[in-house]
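Format notes (please read before filing issues)

Several people have asked whether sequences and structure tokens are stored in separate files. They are not. Every record keeps both together, in the order shown below: the sequence lines, then the token lines. Line labels are part of the format and must not be stripped during preprocessing.
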Amino acid sequence: MTHEAMDRMLTEDDEAWADLTAVLDAHPDVNLHAPGSKPWNSRDTYAHLARWLEYSTGALKAALGGHPAPELDGTPDEMNDRWYAEDAGLSLEEARQWANHAYEERKRAVRNIPPSKWGGEVEKYARFDGAQHIGHHLAYIDLAHATPYPAPAAGPAPRQAPGRYQIVVEKHFEAAHYLRGYQGKCEAMHGHRYTVRVRIAATQLNDIGLAYDFGDVKLHLNRIMDRYDHTCLNDIAPFDVINPSAENIAATIYGELAEKLSAEPIKLEAVEAWETPQQGVIYRPE
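Then the structure lines:
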């Protein structure tokens, strides 16, 4: 793996980690999982992440030394149950610090992999707790069963500056596409690192001074964009029928995100889809 590819991978990991931890920190005292799933709160999730990050980092170092990965004393589900019980006495802050430290240790280990050793078991454990695993945790979170805003703070309500607030959140995904019927180079398959930027309007703040939590917006965006990332968009609905132009991408994401935010006291104003820093589309409904 080249240094540039390594930097891209770790950047994607950092973005996924930031998205997940933002949601965990915004909803610290609720069951984040859907009904029927194991009831985990933010502390449980942080502790779980720390355990597996430490395991995968140890396995990576073993692979680099030509040794087998440490053996687990059970299946992954059995280990999760055992660790869940063992870590029940941790505070949220202890679990958070543990997970962040384990994540940084894992990054250092991955960054120090010699290019000549990339592949096989080394690559397996280098990717083990990266963006994909972190994304799975985001997918498990069910905010419909979590309090959307933190509980009101004690004392008098803070003064709110009069005016209108615009929340802006930006995310990226990489994908290939081609434009059917286009008379030119874009008719052939090619790729972009898309930038999607959403703009949300609000006029009220909650009791801790937030119009809407950035982490919640990112969670909704991740669920929409994950099915586009590292695909050929022409194979993914609705772009198997309509062209995956920047215009259609922006309008499609707008429609899906607006539905997810429909019950919130905010308004989705626009979605932008940029193929390059110099060219993009802004979609606003009439």
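For reference, the curators noted about this record: The radius of gyration is 21 Å. The helical segments are 3-26, 42-64, 76-86, 92-111, 120-127, 131-140, 214-225, 246-260.
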